Amino acid sequence: MSLLAPLYLLLGGAIAVPLLIHLLRRRIGSRIEFPAARYLARAEREHSRTLRLRNLLLMLLRVMALAAITIAAARPVARWVGGGHAPTAVAIVLDNSLSSSAVSGGRPLLDQLKAMARDLLSQATPADRLWLVTADGRVRGGSAGLLRDEIARVEPLAGAGDLASALTRASAVVRGAGLEARQVALLTDGQRTSWTRVPPLPDAQIVLWVPSAAPPANRAVTLAEARPTRWTPRGGVAARFLARDSTTYRMTLAGRTFTRGTAAPNEEVVVHAAPPERGWVAGTVELEPDELTADNVRYFAAWIGAAPGVDATPGAGAFVKSATDVLRASERITAGRDIAVVAADELTTLPALVVPPADPVRLGAANRALERAAIPWRYGARRTDSATARGPLLEDVTVAARYDLVSQMGAVADTLAAVGRDAWIVAGPRYVIVGSPLSPDGTSFPVRAAFVPWLASVFTERLVGEPGQVITAVPGARLARPRWADALEGTDGGRTALGDALDAPARAGTYFLTRGERRVGALVVNAPPEESLLDRFSAADLARRLPAARAIAAHDAASWSTLAFRAAARRSLIQPALLMALVLLVTEAVVIGARSRQTA
User: Fold this and answer.
1) 568 near 129, Cβ under 8 Å?
2) Please, which residues have CB within 8 angstroms of residue 202's CB and are 6 or more apart in sequence?
3) Cα distance between residue 487 and residue 489, in whole Å
4) Which residues, 6 or more positions from 591, have their beta carbon under 8 angstroms from its beta carbon?
5) Which of 160, 271, 275, 593 sits in a 20 to 30 Å window from 39, CA-based?
6) pLDDT tens for residues 503-536?
7) H/E run at residue 434
């Protein structure tokens, strides 16, 4: 037995009242013998024992009646044999992650989980407090009827969600319900990748159900990526597949199938193409549908345009000239004057990749050329201390000689690489400026394997074509807002203005980032590849992994809904306590009445 309002036990102090009355009624005083009354002594002695027993009985009846009333005020509950339960706070955690939409036994697993949740609600009473928490962390509270409607509206997510966070929220809401009986009822497919991280839940009591059947075999697209992001106009699509044997696939661009093929399990496939489309284009890699259709397609995006013409002047250095020759041979660029690669003192037009002059004497002329080109950066002091550069594709790159890059008023640029806290390579509208000569005397970068790919990305992503880039995200993720975009174009063509952050849509797909009326990039939303791995924990194994006060694994669907309330299957003892108090008071009245009649 336990008490829901134990402070009311302080009323037990009233039990002292009948004790005091009993003690005060005792006859205390000197004894005086009257000869005329001696004949009554024998009769008094005969009835004294009966009177003492009657008075003691009255005292006990009053004490017990007050004790019963005090206990009733403290709201006692205890486990009784039979059905029913005390008012209970129950939070149902419903796993509606992408993997729960896998078809098992002829219907999606999520449908079975929803049916089990409805069965639990049918056992709830109006005194219970109820919540529904889904894998995306959304919490709904209300009556059983309201939550049944909410369950009917639950759809599978396009990603993994966060079941550990959902479990934490469920534990928090039942803990704050103000009821002693609290329960978290978990329905999940037990996917191993979803339960790698579970925060401690020291005061949570969890009853869980995991399907005992093996998960279905699954085929999925786990990689779909344009390489490079900008095609000029030739490019490639890399793909990888999860399968037990070889599988056939197709690739599309702008809704048009441009290739089909067969791939071995976990083999990376790269397909090259030079499509006629231009600008920012959405694409897919697809498989034939299986039991989990949501991961049979994966999205990507690419910008397609003509190869830019690049003119590398001798002042840019021999290593830059060699790298541009390689890019020209691979048709990534052509010979032309769309982009200039020049020493700063030779700069006359934009767009341009700018490096400092080889001769420090020319530094003044270089800064004047930057000013004429309206580039808000200047070359400052020369430094010769060796340091390591940080930035994309710059692993193990050392810098032996460099100039400080000094920003001017109103400079808005992206730092592509830094040395310590100082910018080393910056990019702005139609320019990229480097703080060191691109030669081994200034930096080891030109002799690294990453130099040619970096140069190609600068030409095609920073200095020519539509600005912007491809951003990848999982469904529902919150990202930093790109400064170069002001709206997001949905799959239906509608546009939504960007706020302080970029919130990825809840559905997978390719969404274009726009500025004004132009597409300037893409947001590609895909489920994490781990969500396609359907291996699951058994109910017992998952129960052992949950760091909760108590975790109970249900063996079947029927026992889960029963166990959800069994831990709180207690009835109130208020009515029995009050009934006992009434019986005691009636008994007291009977005893007093019998005594009055005998006295009369």
Assistant:
1) no
2) 547, 548, 549
3) 7
4) 54, 57, 58, 61
5) 593
6) 999 999 999 999 988 899 999 999 999 999 999 9
7) strand 431-434
In the numeric block, the tokens 């640029």 are attached to 413
Alpha-carbon dihedral sign for residues 496, 502, 503, 505: positive
Of 543, 477, 535, whose CA–CA distance to 99 is shortest? 535
Cβ distance 263 to 246 under 8 Å? yes
Q: Using alpha carbons, list the distances in angstroms from residue 258 to 112, 128, 246, 479, 560.
A: 39, 58, 20, 32, 50
Q: pLDDT tens digits, residue range 387-409? A: 999 988 788 899 999 999 999 98
3-class DSSP state of 463: coil
Q: What is the pLDDT of residue 18?
A: 66
Enclosing H/E stretch for 94:
strand 88-94
Q: What is the pTM of this model?
A: 0.72
Q: Which two tokens stand for residue 136?
A: 């995306």
Amino acid at the residue 343: A
Q: Is the dihedral of CA 147, 150, 155, 156 positive or negative?
A: negative
Residues ≥6 apart with Cβ < 8 Å to 550: 204, 205, 206, 567
- The C-alpha atoms of residue 259 and residue 273 are separated, in whole angstroms, by 9
Tokens of 234: 């030739």
More confident residue, 347 or 594: 347
Nearest residue to 300 (alpha-carbon basis) of 460, 136, 509: 509
Report whether the peptide linkage leading into residue 35 is cis, meaning its omega lies within 30 degrees of zero.
no
